[in-house]
């Protein structure tokens, strides 16, 4: 899956602040793309801005904890996703991949979206380590991209912008009229402190309607 939204000129952009290593984002982006394809709405394009969780949290992501989140997602709302995920291929940092996505958006909006989706597909569905320079080189070569210092700085710029705009976490979507944090997922902890993930169908429908209506 390369996520190419087509050749039409985008007339609506949906922004989302997210980390490439956030499994909740993968669910949200895939549902967006599925709805867009079903509607034939190639004019609506995603601008995926960086919300680097290792900067937000002050530490890199724990692959074992991510694996637990994925187990819950697959058993509740995403049984069709994460088919290639392995903790051994989880990247030690998301920053280089986020910089590659920034370079793609510097090229153009459609390329930026395609690269953002491809990076997530490689990680979650193909089991590739997107922190690996060799894997990232495959992506930059495929799209004829060059990552520059400005792209590395763009990751931090996106984070600062997200803070200023009140981003809650990854993913936080902004439609023309409203914003939605992690739409379609009801995430909480039970009395024992264990993570619980349940579908929030009405919320995801409201979000998708806001994207395409």
Structure notes:
There is one protein chain. The chain has one domain: Glutaredoxin, CATH 3.40.30. Helices cover 49% and strands 14% of the residues. The protein contains 8 helices and 6 strands, in the order E-H-E-H-H-H-H-H-H-E-E-E-E-H. The chain has helices at residues 23-39, 53-57, 63-76, 95-107, 109-125, 133-143, 149-164, 201-212, and strands spanning 12-18, 44-50, 172-174, 179-181, 185-189, 195-199. The strands form 2 sheets. A 4-stranded mixed beta sheet has the order 2-1-3-4. Helix 4 runs antiparallel to helix 5 and helix 4 packs parallel to helix 6. Residues 1-7 have low confidence and may be disordered.
Q: Output the number of helix runs.
A: 8
Question: Any idea how many domains?
Answer: 1
CATH domain fold name: Glutaredoxin
User: From the 3D coordinates, which CATH architecture would you assign?
Assistant: 3-Layer(aba) Sandwich
Estimate what percentage of residues fall within beta strands. Answer: 5-15%
Oligomer: single chain
Low-confidence stretches: 1-7
The spatial strand order of the largest sheet comes to 2-1-3-4
- Describe the global form: globular
Overall pLDDT confidence:
92
CATH class: Alpha Beta
